[in-house]
Amino acid sequence: MENYDKLKSRISEIVDSKRHLEVDLKKQAADYREIDKKMNSIKPDLIQLRKTRDQYLMWLTQKGVRQRKLNEWLGLKNETTEDEYSMVEDEEDLPHHDERLWRLGNINRIQAETLLRGKRDGTFLVRDSSKPGCYACSVVVDGEVKHCVINKTGTGFGFAEPYNLYGSLKELVLHYQHTSLVQHNDSLNVTLAFPVYSQQRR
């Protein structure tokens, strides 16, 4: 009987420990999602700052400032003759600028899933929504096709308030090309990286 009571007590301790671990894991997961959202919210500002920095570096280079001096100003210790700073990729070359590659108009959910099935994560298209006056974005996330509504309001296009502020669908797509959708939906930790027809037409 004594051994039974000890075993019962031990099992109870294990169950309590498991419950506490589950609570801690859920809290950590929520904290990580919040951190991810905050990081994504400042990413556009960081990209703009890098672009501004690169413009100044280019101007200084054209004025004859040597690479060693630029590295010194940037706090870089490597004094090779190669460029030590990374330039932001020119967004003008992105296929996202060609709306024909991702804006498909009047197709339904099933047709969108057929087009996107088997594509890599981040492949997307924008179509007319069954909700009047709205659009829908279909995107591959973790191998599955997910759908989300794009609102069209008096302030602009967007996935939710207060983010309905893009002047066009193209502006929205270009923004979320480098910003994750996770800030609007925890299951959409993905960017609009690859227009569905970009590979075929490039």
Descriptive labels:
6-stranded mixed sheet; SHC Adaptor Protein; SH2 domain; 1-phosphatidylinositol-3-kinase regulator activity; 5 helices; 202 residues; alpha/beta; SH2; 2 domains; 15% strand; 44% helix; single chain; Phosphatidylinositol 3-kinase regulatory subunit alpha; PI3kinase_P85_cSH2
Q: Would you mind describing this structure in some detail?
A:
The chain is α/β, with parallel strands linked by helices. The chain folds into two domains: 1-81; 95-195, SHC Adaptor Protein (2-Layer Sandwich). Helix content is 44%, strand content 15%. The protein contains five helices and six strands, in the order ααβαββββαβα. Strands 1, 2, 3, 4, 5 and 6 form a six-stranded mixed beta sheet that branches. α3 (109-116) links the parallel β1 and β2. The chain is flat and about 90 Å long. Residues 78-89 have low confidence and may be disordered. Keywords: SH2 domain. This is Phosphatidylinositol 3-kinase regulatory subunit alpha. Residues 102-196 form the SH2 domain. Pfam families: PI3K_P85_iSH2, SH2.
Q: Specify the CATH class of the largest domain.
A: Alpha Beta
What gyration radius follows from the Cα positions, in whole Å? 24 Å
Helix content: 40-55%
CATH architecture heading of the largest domain = 2-Layer Sandwich
> How much of the sequence is in beta strands?
15-25%
- Alpha-carbon distance between the termini? 77 Å
Shape verdict: flat
Order of helices and strands: HHEHEEEEHEH
Domain SH2: 102-196
GO cellular component, one term: phosphatidylinositol 3-kinase complex
Protein name: Phosphatidylinositol 3-kinase regulatory subunit alpha
Keywords: SH2 domain
